[in-house]
Amino acid sequence: MSFEGIDPSAELYNIILEEQFEDFSKYYIAEISFEEFTCKVDVAYRIKHGVFPLMDEKMSYHLLAVVVEVGRKLMQDVENYFEEPEFDSNVYQQNVALYPKIMHGCYEQFMINYDGELSYKEYCCKIDIQYRIEHNCFPHDDDYSMAARLMTCATDYGKKLIAKMDSSIDEVMHEEMIEAAADILWDCINDFLNSPIHQYISDEHGYHTSRRFPKKLIYDEDVSAALDHFCPDEADSIADEAFKWLKKKKFVRVVESGAKSKYDICELIDV
Which residues of 68-93 are buried (b: 16+ CB within 10 A; e: fewer)? Predict the structure, then answer.
């Protein structure tokens, strides 16, 4: 038998949650899924211990107590709810029935525009928490406004998730573009270092190595022409970022600082 890939903490987490949820369900008169229950436990655990269960080395000592507290609170909330004079069981049942219909519809629309991976369970958990933050109650417990509020909450939060994902994708694409530009810039500098004009400049300025060059070279017309296709009319900006990338990766280094950055004397490191 192989135990490769098994996370002991995750296994213990699931065992505790499943056993406790089974016991809890025997006495809980309202409706709640295992996913909703675990979401509430995770949030309560984070509030109490400052970290989610699976990220806590002491989870085995704390989790059971938090699960019991969450279960007791849920039962007490239901009892209090039914004791309220204005309680309308029909409204609560309507919320229970409407919730999956609204959420499935919102989730389907969300995933059309979301380029990442997010399960329906994770999506609902995020929306439930956001709903609680905005309206001080979970969707099922909102007496008369759940449908409109839930759709608005899911739509607005979904847009934020999509914008965040799009921003991450843009950053990755930009980083890939700068890396490609850095390759071209390195070639341009290398070509310059092998040219007759560089030999003349080396002799004129007394460079100690044939691999040194003035940084202002990266703004040369030939270099700009080679980089212009990445972002038309912004070749200098691309050159700056590409140079920083080369410097960070130790493909170039500054050996003498000038009065301004463009007057620095740099050295190309052979790779």
Answer: eebbeebeeebeeeeeeeeeeeeebe
Note the pTM of the prediction, 2 decimals.
Answer: 0.41
Edge-to-edge strand ranges of the sheet holding 265-268: 212-214, 265-268, 252-256
Q: For residue range 208-243, list pLDDT tens digits in order.
A: 567 888 888 888 888 888 888 887 778 888 888 899
End-to-end CA distance of the chain: 47
The CB density around residue 231, as the number of other CB atoms within 10 Å, is 13
- What 3-state DSSP class applies to 55? helix
Tokens linked to 114: 């979301």
Close Cβ partners of 94 (under 8 Å, ≥ 6 residues apart): none
Contact 267, 211 (CB under 8 A): yes
User: 255 Cβ partners below 8 Å, 6+ apart?
Assistant: 212, 265, 266, 267
Q: What is the pLDDT of residues 110-165, one digit of tens each?
A: 898 888 888 999 999 999 999 988 888 888 888 778 888 898 999 998 898 888 88
Residue with tokens 């699931």: 14
DSSP string, 113-176: H--S---HHHHHHHHHHHHHHHHSS-GGG-TTTHHHHHHHHHHHHHHHHHHHHHHHHHHHHHHH
- Contact in structure between 210 and 198 (CB atoms under 8 Å): yes
Compute the distance between CA of residue 185 and CA of residue 199 in angstroms, rounded to an integer.
20
